[in-house]
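#struct-pred

JT: dropping the chains for the assembly here, can someone run the whole complex?
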Amino acid sequence: MSEHSERYLEAALDELYHGGPEPDLPERILRDGRPPALTLVPPEPAPRPRRRWPWLQAACAVLALGAIGLLLPRDDKLPDSIASSDSGFVVSGDEIELTDGWYLLDTGSPVVTAGETRIEQVVGRVLVKVGEIPDEPELSAREAWLKQNGVEREMLNGNWIKAGGLAVCLLFGSAVVDGQPLQAQEKERKRVEELERELEKARKDLERAEREGREREGGEEHRWNPEEAEKDLRRLKEELEEVKGAIGEREKELQAADKEGNEERMAEVRRELDELREHSGNIERHITDIKQMFEIQKLEKRVGEEESAIEELRGKLEKQPDNEELRKKLKAHEEEAEGLRKKLEGLHREFEKRHPEGREDGDPARELERMIERLRGELDELRKHPDRNAEAIKDHERSIKALEEAVANLRMGEKDEFRPDPNQPITVDFVQKDLQTVVHYIALRSGLQIIVEGDVSVRVTVQLTNANPRDLIRKLCEEHHLVCVFDGNVVMIKKPRKQAEVEANLETARADLESLAEKLKQQEQQLDKAEADGRESAAAELRRDIDELRKNVETQREHIKLLEAELAVAKRAAEEAKSKR
Amino acid sequence: MATDPDRETLVRRHHLGVWRYLRFLGADRALADDLTQETFLVFLRKPFNFMGHEATAGYLRGIARYVWLEERRNRVTTAELDAADAAFAQHAGPSDGNDYLDALRECEKTLAGKAREAVHLQYRDRLSLEQIGDTLEMKPNGVKTMLQRARQHLRECVERRLK
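RK: done, full complex below.
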């Protein structure tokens, strides 16, 4: 969330100094936002009815040319409310029967039909194609015509429905299709509802799979009982001793068999040894698990205690908001709780890492994949009779799609599982590597953002196990006479500046601090006055400003401390240089 | 009974919120202008039942989100956008970001010394870290750190005022 806060603040700062959108934006929207008038593109070629029906062709063959005119009106013309593209239709009284092609129906369009299907009462705009819902190549082929009529491709995305022999896309407004009123907004809402239902179903499946996985994987956790665990631990340690003893015996047997040159016996003993070693490894892992569970329990208890203390302190602070002592205590407890939570998270992560086989069984993504496999099998069966199973096929396809998305999301989440933690110990082992490479590694492992100034160029040899990343950086800096500036999770590593330069900066910083302190003093005096005069709103405003200023003073003090530390390093470096000379 | 606002009222009332949302998602000023127009183009072409300004703002953001996704095809995931939506709604609040901007205007006044100068130089004068460093006689990394602190101060100040 902090990244978003930062982004929001930056956008707001830009707006503060440079204003919002162009002042004429609303006018432009209103000017351009009107629905484009339906540009009627004359059908090309002239709309001659296409004689598609065999019976009609037969009739045409039989009847004399004069009679054809009676059957098929040659001056068929579409009304202004319909645009068409290379289309086949028959005007029949007040209705238009569509036989082929694409049509755009606008408000006031007459009834159009195709076989049993009727589209009527169009208020808005409807795109109709005779036949199936168009695919990409078909849409591309009509793109120019659609554009001429003000239809953009994105307006069609996912908005098609199939009604009898027609593919219908309600662009906006409403229409009655086969007696069913259809509204653009309504249609979208239905689609969204349908998607949400699918998503909800997938979510429930996922939750169930997760729950089942947890139950399988975490059965021990649910039954966690410290006394039982102690007993288990003792038993396992004894068993481990026995297994190790057996391993020792088998090793002797192996040597003996080797001396005798008994290959058969050697192979047998080796097999037994492998099994015993595997068993020993399992016991050791189990012992580590139990020990870690003890630690987790202990940490959880401590987190709980810290949270209770925080709760209590917050309650007290509400009653005494000016009590600095309480505030400090609260901060200390919050920091302690945060540190403990991080440790706890680390332990949980470690535990999960050591149990990949447990995850395999309870892996929700795997569960969903199994469901997908099953559904695919069913779908293949259903497809053998597509006419009979049209609905079921659609349902299966939708479910599979939703489940596939859920699996993809889960897998994506797994990739993100590694979360660097600046408080987690790390192990480093570098010999004569440049500092940039070493800190790059530390940054990746710890999540600290480390900036190394361009002019720093040292080679580093470091071998440390389970070191706190911040301590590690401090040590590196000390060792190589560099300055480390820590600011939250940001660390800057730089060469110590010359003593004179740091002193100058320190002087400026101290002057800034003085001016801030002076400003603070003035505000405090104003506050006293405002309170004495009973100007409560002014006083409230001043109190807020004073709070801000106090924080600024604190920040400046920290800055000065850092400069002082830098000055100490610079002095030390100067002295060393002097003594070398 | 009050009548539903007409399209002009809706555009004037909501265009700023949509524009801010698009800026927040990462559109530059010109692109935010264009995409705001595109958002309203889609909005005005569809029939719409007015259900209050807050719901309208949410509906418009939904369209803007789609427009942004199209613009950034394959470069942004819906999960990222979901997180961004939640954050935007939290910061902008029902005033579409007006309250936030007012609070920021006040908080900016509480910045002092070089931090204030650095913020002005970066956001008002759009200078680079190097240029700011030259002006303030500081190293660019020092400027960067100071700006980080200034932004943190502003964020906390705005949050307190909005509470």
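JT: nice. The helical segments of chain B are 7-25, 29-45, 53-71, 78-92, 98-108, 113-124, 129-136, 140-162. Chain B has eight helices and no strands.
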